[in-house]
Amino acid sequence: MEERGLLHMKPKIVVAYNKVSPKVLSFLSESYHVINFDKLDAQTLPNFYQELGDAHGLLTAGLKIDSALLNRAPQLKIVSNISVGYDNLNLLELNKRNVMATNTPGVLNDTVADTVMGLILAVARRIPELDQHVKTGNWKVEDGVNLYGNNVHHKVLGIIGMGGIGTAVAKRAHFGFDMPILYHNRSRHTEAEQMVNAVYCSLEELCQQSDFMCLLTPLTPQTVKLIGEKEFKQMKSTAIFINASRGATVDEQALIRALENKEILGAGLDVFEQEPVSPGNKLLSMDNVVALPHIGSATHETRLEMAMLAAENLVSGLQGKMPPNLINREALKNLF
Ligand code: DGY
Questions:
Q1: Positive or negative, the Cα torsion across 248, 254, 258, 260?
Q2: Residue 104 Cα: closest atom of ligand 1
Q3: How far from the centroid of its chain's Cα atoms is residue 196's Cα?
Q4: From the CB of 297, is ligand 1 less than 6 Å away?
């Protein structure tokens, strides 16, 4: 009884994420009363909203944080996102309420870059398609020319969004695959230019000259449908398009048409306009498309690091310190 009373004197944190590691939960439980929701569905939502009523911190990923949710959480001081992307957060509404928001940059760069290289190789060398070919009892006929793929090494890689992940992809491509690198970004990235001879160019030049194009930009109002019909028409008919940013950065119908009309050769997609992707989505029935379930950063090691970094961000915010990965300094106006 007494312990229960003490528990409730600790500030409350609500965790809404599927399977946060016990290590992270026990770190948080040292100082906070932690309420953990492994999943949010019709059954758990009413309880989740009730717990938010007096929560000080929310640890989550991908959950839409808008005025409706924030209105249910009047005590909230910080929302800690377990992801680098934060397009799920309505920053204006958070700022209005002086609620801090944080993300987890850096720790996932190498892991997402590995996924991107995996998609490049999988599409160019047709790995999932050939895997199915062999597993369904087939082999090569003579030289197997109908099973040939395309080289990756020495081909031109275009990176749209040269941040931490883009730089990690560029390093792999330059040092491992001898690929010349083009990039398009809001601003010049001198480190990438010096380290891997990356050449800055316009989006149009990048589309025209790349053999492989990786879209890695965050989703913002400026990047919605950044790649659409015009851009696909500018690409080489042998180009392979990779999206590891967010589905909404691409006009998906334009991508489908570009693939159907053979305006480009193939695509590797970790993200879709609608997630979970609808089983009827045309992209899923194309042999030249390799699809992943938005899993670019999902390794055991990296997801643990991300969750721990998110927990540390949350704790600093609740302790009245500046969280290391604060996104919205505007929320601090009246606090520090
Ligand atoms: C990220 O961290 O933004 C990844 O895409 C996972 O959502």
A1: positive
A2: 2
A3: 24
A4: yes
pTM above 0.85, yes or no: yes
Q: What pLDDT score does 144 carry?
A: 82
Q: 126, 246, 263, 312: which is the annotated catalytic residue?
A: 246
pLDDT in tens, 247-273: 999 999 999 999 999 999 999 999 999
Q: Given this model, what pLDDT does residue 96 score?
A: 95
Residue to substitute in 63, 82, 83, 116 for testing ligand 1 pocket (most ligand atoms within 8 angstroms of CB): 83
Distance CA 43, CA 50 (A): 13
Alpha-helix runs per DSSP H in 8-141:
22-29, 45-52, 67-71, 91-96, 109-124, 127-135
Mean pLDDT of 126-142: 95
Residue 88 near residue 81, CB atoms below 8 Å: yes
Are 270 and 250 spatial neighbours (Cβ–Cβ below 8 Å)?
no
Ligand 1 pocket check for 182: Cβ under 6 Å: no
φ and ψ of 70, to 5 deg:
-65, -30
| C-alpha separations of 285 from 129, 259, 264, 279, 332 in Å | 11, 12, 16, 9, 48
**Tens digit of pLDDT for each residue in 42-90?**
999 999 999 999 999 999 999 999 999 999 999 999 999 999 999 999 9
- Residue 200 forms beta bridges with which residues? 183
